[in-house]
Amino acid sequence: MSVRPADLRPCAAVGLRRSDEPVTVDAGSATRWPVITKAPSRMAVRPNLTDYEATCASFTWDAARAALDGLPDGGLNIAHEAVDRHASGPRRDAEALRFVRADGSTRSLSYADLAEASSRFAAVLQGLGVGRGERVFSLLGRCPELFTGVLGTFKNGSVFCPLFSAFGPEPVSQRLRLGRGRVLLTTRALYRRKVAPVRDDLPDLAHVLLVDADGSPEPGTLDLAELLQRSVPSREIAATRPEDPALLHFTSGTTGTPKGAVHVHDAVVAHYATGLYALDLHPGDVYWCTADPGWVTGMSYGVIAPLVHGVTALVDEAEMDADRWYRLLAEHRVTVWYTAPTALRMLMRAGTERARAHDLSALRFVASVGEPLNPEVVVWGQEAWGLPVHDNWWQTETGGIMIANLVATEIRPGSMGRPLPGVEVGLVARDADGAPVIQDGVAVLVTDPDVEGELALRPGWPSMFRGHLDEEERYRRCFAGGWYLTGDLARRDADGYYWFVGRGDDVIKSSGHLIGPFEVESCLMEHPAVAEAGVIGVPDAVAGQVVKAFVLLRPGHVPSEELRLSILALARKRLGAAVAPREIAFAESLPKTKSGKILRRLLRARELGLPEGDLSTLEAGR
Ligand code: AMP
């Protein structure tokens, strides 16, 4: 039965045209949140995907690949697909990127500008002797040089690795070292604070290019603007093959150092197909992905997917602020908006009236990724701006969206949606220790509805990571019984919608950023008073989770507020605010396994008052 519930009441604000949108609600859904159904035939723009089952049945990755240009002799280069093919066609003068500075002023690059600027950057790399496969890192905010740097790196056949500019010196130097970065693109301030002090420990780092050197680079760095001016751009693009590495994204695990996920040029096929189906991009769209290109979402969907589709991508150079965001959505007539649960929760807190004060009538589609999206937020979107939020799921290793609530199909608030065309998803059964159940080399799948299993993907989609940098064994362990194991736990309902249950491991998601507890624990233990540390994520109404650390002091030290602040200060200085713990508690002991590993699962259960589960591996007396 379809009803129109009171909590999805039409928007009253001037400019919100969606009061008559074809949205109805099925009161008989599996959750307490009503299903949101839609009528594609009445939508302002015909969705790219209207018949889910038929599209899944007919879809092939080869057909998606055929929609791209390719290079001669079977080559493929992301920069050609994203920029140069538009620059040599009717879209050459179309606006590719529109940057909004903190003061609201804008600067734009057309596809032709972007082609020229990225070719210049490629020529700079050539001039510096940076070759195919060598790694170019960035430590930058969302500025034009980041975008031209990524695309120029692809054109040169080198590999780009973006770092989040809010990382502290430790994560920055560790990733530069692990990735053997040859070039770093950064600003004077970031270089001084985060790289110069450790430069001697980075023997592979041959060139640091400052985007704001203004004619007087720091010692040991180069002025990018001057190099660009002197360079002679060539129209040639390195003849990369689909399987050549293009991107390196570091992500966090439970143990050990961050993992470098290697992605190849063929990933652009998935960015194209998911931009089409999951984000419903159409020619003429003004699209805004709020993620920072320091993370995979900001790269795959803030840089590559919109450019491959030839739309205009908005880039906000400032930090998140509710009124600013609404102003940007309204003034720039954003049509498709891809954002994250933490930001949406902040907007919800700011109130419905704030949203209604702006003319968001151009907005057609809203999507979210990165952490669990509360069903309240999905439904609130409908109330605030007349559109529900479409949650989707993927991770650094998958390179692109895998599961999504789609524009023309019903939304089940709280669910991540259904697999995209070309993506095969399974739930692998887990044994009592949480290990995947494999029989005769084949994974045992959970087939009954609403039963938990480990979310798994059948390898073969183009944006799948092709390796963990220098860690073959770690990469191999991600696959079992014919599936890639994601580390997430999920359920599938009887209609094929997937519901996130939680992480199967100890990694923490805070404000959409994946944080490895080991990295934080190692840093805390550098404090002279700390003997041991255990780090977990605790729930937070806005950030999803925040990092909480339990520290055990060395003999001779006693807990005090001063000591707590001193440990916190060290963590913030070394790790940066995005990774450092929000809370630190002094512990008298930490629960450990008999083999000495900290049982973070138990720390978390005790902190949250949850059942302690199987304690058979617990060290006596803990
Ligand atoms: P990252 O590799 O940093 O993009 O983080 C990927 C992880 O974020 C996934 O493995 C999930 O644990 C979480 N995640 C991403 N999207 C969602 C979603 N829609 N719902 C719940 N968790 C998500």
Automatic annotation (TrEMBL):
Q: Which UniProt keywords apply?
A: Acetylation, ATP-binding, Ligase, Nucleotide-binding
What InterPro entries does the annotation carry? Answer: AMP-bd_C (IPR025110), AMP-bd_C_sf (IPR045851), AMP-binding_CS (IPR020845), AMP-dep_synth/lig_dom (IPR000873), ANL_N_sf (IPR042099)
Q: Which is a Pfam family this sequence falls into?
A: AMP-binding
Record-annotated AMP-binding enzyme C-terminal domain positions: 519-597
Q: Which GO terms describe its molecular function?
A: acetate-CoA ligase activity; ATP binding
What name does the UniProt record give this protein? acetate--CoA ligase
Q: Which residues form the AMP-dependent synthetase/ligase domain?
A: 85-458
User: What PROSITE patterns does the record tag this protein with?
Assistant: AMP_BINDING
**GO BP annotation list:** acetyl-CoA biosynthetic process
